Amino acid sequence: MLVTKARGKSGNRNLRRGGQDRQANPPKTKEQKARDAEIRKITRRLLLDKTYQDNLKERLRSGKIQPGVEVALYYYAFGKPPDSVDSRPPTPIRLVHEYAK
Questions:
Q1: Alpha carbons 81 and 74: distance in angstroms, whole number
Q2: Chain-centroid distance, C-alpha 71
Q3: What are the pLDDT digits (tens) for 9-47?
Q4: Concatenated DSSP letters of 37-84
Q5: CA angle, residues 65, 67, 71, in degrees to nearest 5
Q6: CB–CB of 74/47 below 8 Å?
């Protein structure tokens, strides 16, 4: 007896257990989690330091800042910012001066 597959269907020989996402992002080990926590602690301490903040303000004012370094520090310290965008139209308001006639 000849068995044929429907057109466009393939067998599941090439599928891996756990799916694509599991292969791309394996679970973190305890050592990796501890290292990440230590990096967060160090970068937060650095970013919240008064001297660093003063120097950062000076670099911003003088235009000598390296954006990639600052972005990376904030990412490591506080995580990825949310990717949400508020697409609702703004609520119209009417301003009235209290001395208007």
A1: 9
A2: 10
A3: 556 555 555 555 555 677 889 999 999 999 999 989 998
A4: HHHHHHHHHHHT-HHHHHHHHHHHHHT---HHHHHHHHHHHH-PPP--
A5: 130
A6: yes
pLDDT at 11: 60
What's CA 98's distance to the chain center, in Å?
45
CA atoms within 13 A on the CB side of 68: 0
Question: How far apart (Å, rounded) are the C-alpha atoms in residues 76 and 68?
Answer: 12
Residue type, 52: Y
Asked if residues 73 and 43 have their Cβ atoms less than 8 Å apart, the reply is yes
Q: What is the pLDDT of residue 5?
A: 54
**Predicted model pTM:** 0.44
pLDDT (average), residues 52-76: 84
Taking the C-alpha atoms of residue 58 and residue 64, their distance in angstroms, rounded to an integer, is: 9
Q: Tell me, what DSSP letter sits at residue 88? A: S
